[in-house]
Specification:
Blueprint lengths: L5 E5 L6 H9 L17 E9 L1 H4 L12 E3 L2 E10 L14 H8 L4 E7 L19 H18 L2 H11 L3 H9 L6 H9 L3 H5 L6 H16 L2 E6 L6 H11 L18 E3 L2 H12 L24 H18 L4 H12 L2 E6 L18 E3 L5 H9 L2 H4 L1 E6 L3 E3 L12 E6 L3
Parallel strand pairs: 1-4, 1-5, 5-6, 6-7, 8-12
Antiparallel strand pairs: 2-4, 3-4, 8-9, 10-11, 10-12
Length: about 425
């Protein structure tokens, strides 16, 4: 059973998106199969690290995930990553690959915006020197906003007339217009909740150029939570550009207000090429490196000797990236993206005695990430496509505690679940 959400990797051409995708999806040495039935050419699988209950419950030796892996109680759960076509200014008007980019976004739940912090690519992704990337976050957000607003604007007068004729609620009317963007009703409601109540009450009087624009702005904050990966942090001009960008968004660290769809604590410093090289060296047994950590080892007896050129490059990555920033940042970007959605890991088991099959065997085979607010019965339905729901007889968690159908799943409390059916 796979977690169904999608992380989209976005940005202008040559910002480092492909390197970022390679850096977070190269796990072929760890895993032989994926939980997704179809992986398109521009998709990959990244891994979200969580604490697995296996160690606390004393079954870490038997913890054998069906997908991903677990090491010392740290479990790596596969998540789907989408590499979206590069965006350039004017994409909402059809420039570049704008239409492809914006269509790809329909499938995304959260965005990682890869920004070239080095200033070596201009707004269109062409190689240059001295480009100031301070506006890159803002213009990408504006392109997406213009695209959605433009689609609504073209038919807005007719939408309002139908709204009045059928006496629909604002959320019903807007949800009907936004369903094509993969938008659940609750997202539309949360966007409306961001607006003043008196404005929502005057929905039938909304003008496309004013109130509708205000709604679209709020809608984007809810529909596309965004993590910014300031990439190429080891390049010469990156420091000054990073400082300027951080200064622009500094005010967001003191409140929950988003600026250009981001907050300071959702900006991550990354070196995608550094991570790619470290993983390559680890895979070839020249170093021992754990993704997300602040160093690597060259001293283990099993490792191959390094030539001087490779050793110098590794030391440069160590000095300019790992020691300076604590990691290459790419795994942290994935963690922030999943955390932005608030998803909860749930472990369905057939036995609370073995945490696997009723007989002694592999434990905690499955882990599914679910939306916050998911109930015990809703998760049963998600697991087996109505089959378990039809024969549902009850559920319990660790300690034999019985769970109610409407109980909301909470991490660390009732997220290890055994279901019983009328067939048992």
């Amino acid at each position: 059973m796979a977690s169904s959400f999608v992380i989209a990797c976005v940005g202008k051409p040559s910002a480092g998106k492909s390197s970022f995708l390679n850096a977070v999806t190269d796990a072929s040495a760890k895993v032989g199969n994926f939980p997704f039935t179809t992986i398109e050419p521009n998709e990959g699988i990244a891994y979200y690290p969580i604490l697995c209950p296996c160690e606390k419950l004393g079954v870490s030796e038997r913890c054998k995930p069906r997908h991903g892996w677990c090491s010392g109680g740290r479990r790596y759960v596969p998540v789907r990553l989408l590499d979206v076509a590069g965006l350039v200014p004017g994409a909402s008007e059809g420039k570049g690959l704008g239409n492809q980019f914006l269509d790809d976004l329909r499938h995304a739940d959260v965005l990682i915006h890869v920004v070239d912090a080095s200033g070596t690519t201009d707004a269109s992704g062409r190689e240059t020197r001295g480009y100031d990337p301070i506006d890159d976050i803002q213009w990408l957000r504006q392109e997406v906003e213009a695209w959605i607003w433009g689609n609504l604007d073209r038919k807005w007068s007719g939408v309002v007339r139908r709204h009045v004729a059928v006496k629909a609620t604002p959320v019903e009317t807007l949800h009907a217009q936004l369903a094509g963007y993969g938008t659940p009703r609750e997202v539309v409601q949360r966007a409306l909740d961001r607006l003043p109540r008196d404005l929502v009450n005057e929905f039938s009087r909304w003008e496309a150029q004013t109130e509708l624009r205000q709604f679209v702005h709020a809608f984007l904050d809810e529909r596309f939570p965004t993590i910014v990966a300031l990439n190429k942090i080891d390049m010469p001009d990156s420091d000054k550009n990073i400082s300027a960008i951080m200064k622009r968004y500094h005010s967001t660290s003191k409140n929950s207000v988003l600026v250009d769809g981001v907050r300071l604590d959702n900006i991550v410093l990354t070196s995608a090429l550094g991570e790619c090289f470290l993983r390559k060296m680890h895979k070839q047994s020249f170093i021992h490196y754990e993704p997300g950590t602040d160093d690597f080892s060259t001293e283990l007896p099993s490792l191959k000797p390094l030539d001087e050129k490779t050793r110098r490059r590794l030391e440069t990555i160590r000095d300019l990236v790992l020691f300076r920033y604590g990691s290459t940042g790419v795994q942290e970007a994935i963690v922030r993206a999943v955390d932005a959605l608030g998803y909860i890991p749930v472990f369905p088991v057939k036995s609370l005695a073995t945490f696997g099959a009723p007989q002694q065997g592999p434990a905690f085979r499955d882990c599914v990430l679910v939306k916050p607010g998911t109930t015990v019965r809703e998760f049963a339905r998600k697991l087996h496509n109505q089959a378990l729901d039809r024969s549902y007889a009850g559920a319990e968690t660790i300690g034999g505690i019985q769970l109610g159908e409407a109980d909301v799943i909470v991490p660390g409390k009732n997220n290890v679940i055994k279901y019983t059916t009328t067939n048992e």
